[in-house]
Amino acid sequence: MKLDAIDLRIIEAMKRNGRLTKQALAETVGLSATPAWARLKRLEAGGVITGYHARVSATAQAPRVRVLMEVTVASHRHADFKRFETAVVAVPEIVSCWAVGGGVDYFLTVETEDIDSYQRLVDRLLTMEIGIQRYFTYIVTRAVKDRTD
Predict the structure, then answer these.
(1) Helices 22-29 and 5-16 meet at what angle, rounded to 10?
(2) Closest Cα partner for 36 from 74, 7, 65, 57?
(3) Would you say 59 and 79 are in contact if contact means Cβ atoms under 8 Å apart?
(4) DSSP state at residue 1
(5) Which of 77, 106, 116, 147 has its CA 20 to 30 A from that of 41?
(6) pTM score of the predicted model
(7) Distance CA 97, CA 79 (A)
(8) Is residue 143 helix, strand or coil?
(9) How does DSSP assign 45-103, residue by residue?
């Protein structure tokens, strides 16, 4: 899908506030309401805008510990990566996972109720035999910037 300057303004406006009304969106991007809304719907239908969400404080529902985990897998065959990724997707405490190039293979964000719960999760991952060769744990002490696009 080819995006023009107005499409890009719509995307930025919706990233800042996904609850904009038709009229507010139109005013923000400099169009009348109907064309602005039609463009938004086209961006959604085309898969450019994939959804909307609410950011909820990690501690609002219950105390949580956020941990960043760096993982290197033992073997670098396609099937080994697939086995690891399939397992990670099924673990609800792992809230994000990025495959990366460089000295490690994955960065994971893990949220558990406490450090003991995190360690039990790591022990479980290690016994699952999903190819983890080495991992490093980084405890998040505070969020400086936490933006999801």
Answers:
(1) 130
(2) 7
(3) no
(4) -
(5) 147
(6) 0.67
(7) 17
(8) coil
(9) HTTSS--------HHHHS--EEEEEEEEES--SHHHHHHHHHHHHT-TTEEEEEE--SS
pLDDT value at residue 36: 95
- Listed as ranges, residues in the chain with pLDDT below 50 are 149
Q: What are the structure tokens assigned to 34, written together?
A: 């109907």
Number of H helices, E strands in the chain: 6, 4
134 with 72: CB under 8 angstroms? yes
> Which two three-digit tokens encode residue 132?
């983890």
Q: Which two tokens stand for residue 52?
A: 């909307």
Other residues' Cβ atoms within 10 Å of the Cβ of residue 21: 11
- What gap in Å lies between CA 14 and CA 16, rounded to an integer? 5
Distance of CA 107 to the CA centre of its chain: 12
CA nearest to 15, candidates 56, 49, 59, 39:
49
End-to-end distance of the chain based on CA atoms, in angstroms? 19
